[in-house]
Fold this protein.
Amino acid sequence: MVALEAAGSLAAVLVILMQFGLLRSQAIHGQTSLYAFESLFVGAFSLVVGLVTGKLDLYLLAAVTVVAKVLLVPAIILYLTRDLDEHVEVEVPLTVGVGSSLLAALVFTGIAYAATLRLPLPGALLPQSVFSIGLAVVLIGFFFMITRPNLISQLIGLLTVENGIFLATIAVAPGLPLLVGLLILFDVLMAALVFGILVRLLAVQGSTITTTPLRRLKG
Amino acid sequence: MTANLAALLVIPLLLGTISYLFPAPRLLQTLTVAGGLASLILAGSLIGLGGTGRISAAGGLLYADPLSVLLLLTVALVYATSAIFAVGYLKGEEHAPGFHNYVRNFYVLLNFFAFSMLLVPATDNLGLMWVAVELTTIVSALMVGMEGTGAALEAAWKYMLIASAGLALALVGVVLLYASGTGILGTAYELNWTRLLEISGNLEGDTVRLAFVFAIIGFGTKAGLVPMHTWLPDAHSEGPTPVSALLSGALLADAMYAIFRFYSITIQAVGPEFPQMLLLIFGLASLILAGFFVLIQRNFKRLLAYSSIEHMGILAVGVAFGTPLALYGVTLHILTHAATKSMAFFGAGSILRKLGTRETAKVHGLIHLIPATAVLFLITSLALSGLPPFGVFRSEFLILAGGFSRAGAWFVPAALLLVLVNLAFLGLFRYANRMVMGEPPEGTKPGEVSKWMVAAMVLDLVFVLGLGLWVPDSLSILLRGAASVIGGGS
């Protein structure tokens, strides 16, 4: 039991490490593989909680996570960006530099801990810090989306937000009957939207994936 | 009653499937109009539930109380009128390339959109409700991007990113609310409103507070509350007009509904101060920002979108007032706003079709061009700005009266509400007047775009004007019941 708890905490810590790593990666491929690793650790976390609670659907969730987010989504992203210019590949522009981004991420992590660490959560099985870590991942993911003006990076940011939500919800409410269904549906949402909109957006914009052309609608 | 509720959900689901399997334009238009009207009648029949009735089936997966019925009625009304309007909207496009495909996608999505929005209020299960809100996002984001232009896809992308982020936060809210009850109900229980309300006094207070914060930010993103509103004007102005009407009249109401459900549990668990203060802050922020943006808009569909933000602000402030009178006004306002705003969008859509522009400055002399639409558009603009004798006036008046009746410092937000509502009135009225009067642009021929478009507006007018003159007793009883549900009565 103690070993399992430790494994769960370790997985959660690895997730947030990947999230920090994302902030200093400036290449689409690098960001994609960091996301794949992050998802792998989320899957591992789900597996651990499954072992602790003995709930079969959490194993299922772990399996879905690995297939969908470690393999499929990264593969799709790489496929979508296969024709992009070499220089886009190398460098995603930053509106906030790496150093400041990391500092901001530290602040977000602090906020997440301060807001949640003393919250009474009777249903949680693992150390409560996992919930805080999940929230921190969410906040950093938002920050990432805001400061990386690039379609693919924004998408990856959103996907990591989803990872954070996975972590937080599984940590708090592993017993919630609908939980696994809810989380898997969230994946479906992402997939539907990506195929429905992103692909067409890329087609309309030609080969560019920066969001600079997306400036028509404001005010 | 249970059968009516089930039928209400099955109709759009069935129509969506038929639209996919048999994509003949004429067939789909007829069926969807019939389905929309049938939904409206079915929802109307549920008014018979009265002020205290409940429907619950399949362990709470299917559920309705007066507040649900109000929302069902609202969504069904906009669904029916949008279906009618869509017939006119698609007219004249028959020979465009890809029309066949477009019609199929349009009706599949339209019907599934209606289904998902009807599902939101029709369940007792908090998890299922979240799923329904998520479904609305999938379907509506695809519809916003349907036109396939750069601007439409940009709006859809923005909507998708922001709304999904909001949904993610809302899910945390749902899970936290669940966690707040695990101390009493054990770690595995069905997450039903009714169950949580019964034990609301024993929920973990701090966890409920945090859950409410997540819920108001998460669902508030879908409801267009400031500062999470930035996707809204884009999505509402770039989507096809029937979709704009559904987004504005029905979807925003659904999102507010989700917040109200959280609110009703939160006030029972931690008292009224905390949730009311949060609603007041978000509501006033929405009113202030939207009021000024209405004044400076040059695009009339965006103008209406900002007006929707303003009206969601009014709802939030109304609930923050918390008096029975204000809550009653809020419930009526959900319905009157839906009718009036969808009517306004239909007018805007007709104008867009006629003149091919969204620029307010390029539109004038409508009264000579499309007289029926012009008069209806002017009426709906007046109604939307809160003038008597229209429904919005009645509901806004009730909310204000409810606010002023609260003693002490509540005078300030009530007065602020009064001022801001008038600010928006100025903006709306100025533009509407300019668009309707004067000489028509050169080279345009008089003639309505489509009778169907006018018919949709007339059907809305029945509610826009009717609810201002007279609220039937049965509806009034239902609204009172809905108000007491928002206020935390079981």
Notes: The two ends of chain B are 20 Å apart (CA to CA). The CA atoms of residues 385 and 421 of chain B lie 7 Å apart.
